[in-house]
From TrEMBL:
<comment type="similarity">
    <text>Belongs to the FemABX family.</text>
</comment>
<dbReference type="GO" id="GO:0008360">
    <property type="term" value="P:regulation of cell shape"/>
</dbReference>
<keyword id="KW-0133">Cell shape</keyword>
<keyword id="KW-0961">Cell wall biogenesis/degradation</keyword>
<keyword id="KW-0012">Acyltransferase</keyword>
<dbReference type="GO" id="GO:0016755">
    <property type="term" value="F:aminoacyltransferase activity"/>
</dbReference>
<keyword id="KW-0808">Transferase</keyword>
<dbReference type="GO" id="GO:0009252">
    <property type="term" value="P:peptidoglycan biosynthetic process"/>
</dbReference>
<dbReference type="InterPro" id="IPR050644">
    <property type="entry name" value="PG_Glycine_Bridge_Synth"/>
</dbReference>
<protein>
    <submittedName>
        <fullName>Peptidoglycan bridge formation glycyltransferase FemA/FemB family protein</fullName>
    </submittedName>
</protein>
<dbReference type="GO" id="GO:0071555">
    <property type="term" value="P:cell wall organization"/>
</dbReference>
<dbReference type="InterPro" id="IPR003447">
    <property type="entry name" value="FEMABX"/>
</dbReference>
<dbReference type="InterPro" id="IPR016181">
    <property type="entry name" value="Acyl_CoA_acyltransferase"/>
</dbReference>
<dbReference type="Pfam" id="PF02388">
    <property type="entry name" value="FemAB"/>
</dbReference>
<keyword id="KW-0573">Peptidoglycan synthesis</keyword>
């Protein structure tokens, strides 16, 4: 095997089509991180002019010249092939030494085992326990996870229609999506010029959950470097349209009442059934009238929430965002995710990634509410293999491990 530095085009050509690909193993992420004191290298193991393994390597130079390396969500390689992994690792190690590197951290984008939406291991499903064994044979050391989310919620879209996916939604999610559609909730592109609106939502979420907020510059740089592969979407409604839709819904209920009254007078139903249905419809009309009163006090065009999505490689990733507190009770986020799942299917993506859910085996999981919400979409729980260190110069190991801060990844950081 020959290890070569790849051009950005060569690397992306391999990375974007790799089954373990991630937005953090792209030249866009490399450019993004280069704005934060890192240098990006793109390397590939080549056999007979064919790339058989590759990785983005981020390098950070310390004051005395020693460099620490990190392969975010790398390597992109067949982890089943132990000899290939060992050879590629050895070549990468030589490359790092040439660049005065002393340490390498990786956190591959590969799951441990297949799990259902409740986190239960699926009998007969994928089992990647061999990954840890093969990485250890390549001289990697398993360490505690600090940088990237280890647990995700993800919907497999391969060979599925939106109807297939929708059937796996929870009853609550299906009912909410249908109700929001009847009301007239819609999704549109968010004008990034109004980024302050997005930041206001993010800041409110931070106060609510006591988390660290990425800066405005973070999002501006991310938008610039991933241009074309990042989308900001907002879920909204127009007041007049919603009120008109509610009037139609009230009219439909009254029409049903008229038919029922006629059937009752013609002895086509029991008195008990008739009374029960009448009471149900009266409650429904009261509910709709209350909704109408609520929406009548709203602005003409209301943005209820904004989310940021990465749309690159194999998946659409719902990376960050939120709903304005005032509209949380309307459950508009279900509409936003539903529309983006449709987008992902229509554009040939293999996964819709709802992203981090925290360690579901931990009774103190601070993201438990997020996990319970995301379960409603009927996806799978993904437990990734975690972080591994390759010690190149033992003298610098402690320093290197202390250096790696949580903000190097993309995850929720609690204060």
């Amino acid at each position: 095997m020959e290890l070569r530095e790849l051009t950005k085009k060569e690397f992306d050509g391999y990375a974007l089509n790799h089954p373990l690909g991630s937005f953090q193993q792209t030249s866009s992420w490399g450019r993004f991180m280069e704005g934060d004191k890192f240098h990006a290298y793109y390397v590939g193991g080549v056999v007979k002019e064919k790339i058989v393994g590759a990785s983005l390597l981020l390098s950070y130079e310390r004051k005395k010249g020693e460099r620490i390396f990190y392969a975010p969500r790398g390597f992109l390689i067949d982890y089943k092939n132990e000899e290939l992994l060992k050879e590629f690792t050895e070549e990468v190690k030589k490359f790092i030494v040439e660049k005065h590197g002393v340490f390498l951290k990786i956190d591959p984008y590969i799951l441990v085992r297949d799990r259902d939406s409740d986190g239960n291991i699926i009998d007969g499903g994928v089992n990647n326990d061999f990954v840890e064994v093969n990485l250890c044979h390549a001289n990697f050391i398993k360490v505690n996870d600090r940088i990237q989310p280890k647990w995700l919620s993800r919907i497999n879209l391969k060979d599925k229609t939106i109807d297939n996916v929708f059937k796996n939604f929870s009853p609550k999610a299906r009912q909410t999506v249908r109700r929001n559609e009847r009301l007239g909730f819609k999704v549109r592109d968010f004008d990034f010029k109004d980024i302050d609106k997005f930041m206001d939502i993010i800041n409110e979420e931070s106060k609510k959950y006591n988390t660290v907020v990425p800066t405005r510059t973070f999002y501006e740089d991310l938008k610039r470097t991933f241009d074309g592969n990042i989308q900001f979407k907002e879920v909204y409604f127009k007041k007049d349209e919603v009120i008109s839709n509610i009037d139609k819904m009230i009219l439909d209920v009254n029409k049903e009442k008229e038919v029922r009254i006629n059937n009752y007078h013609n002895s086509k139903m029991t008195e008990e059934y008739f009374i029960d249905k009448e009471l149900e419809d009266e409650e429904e009309i009261k509910r709709l009238e209350s909704l109408k009163e609520y929406f009548s006090k709203c602005s003409d065009d209301v943005s209820m929430g904004i989310y940021m999505f990465m749309t690159i490689g194999n998946e659409v990733v719902a990376l960050n965002g939120g709903i304005v507190d005032e509209y949380n009770k309307l459950d508009a986020s279900y509409t936003l995710h539903y529309e983006m799942i449709k987008y992902a299917i229509d554009n040939g993506y293999k996964y819709y990634n709802l992203y981090e859910i925290g360690d579901i085996t931990d009774s103190n999981n601070k993201l438990k509410n997020s996990y319970n919400y995301k379960k409603n979409f009927g996806g799978e729980v993904v437990e990734l293999v975690g972080e591994y260190d390759l010690v190149i110069n033992p003298k610098y190991t402690d320093m290197a491990r202390k250096y790696f801060p949580e903000y190097l990844g993309v995850k929720t950081i609690f204060k």
